[in-house]
Design a protein that fits this description.
By secondary structure, the chain is an all-alpha fold. It contains 4 helices and no strands.
């Protein structure tokens, strides 16, 4: 993630989505090991994702919403 936390914003989501190559992942993990701000941010993002997954599983979604949400996760071509 480089030496600045501004890189954290750019790398956090691909890191969480496991979209980084091995070198980028090691760089991200090294940054998280050394930066308490980014480490807290990472833990928050993990918790948020867990909450969203749990909430989505426990509630009835309107017809078509799951498909629209899945389409948002698909990279634009």
């Amino acid at each position: 993630m480089g030496c600045g936390c501004s890189d954290c914003e750019e790398m956090m989501q691909p890191y969480l989505d496991r979209e980084l190559d091995d070198e980028q992942r090691r760089e991200a993990e090294a940054h998280l090991d050394g930066c308490s701000y980014c480490r807290r941010r990472y833990r928050f993002e993990v918790s948020l994702r867990r909450y969203v997954r749990t909430s989505a599983a426990e509630t009835q979604m309107p017809a078509g919403l799951k498909e629209r949400l899945a389409a948002l996760r698909t990279p634009l071509q």
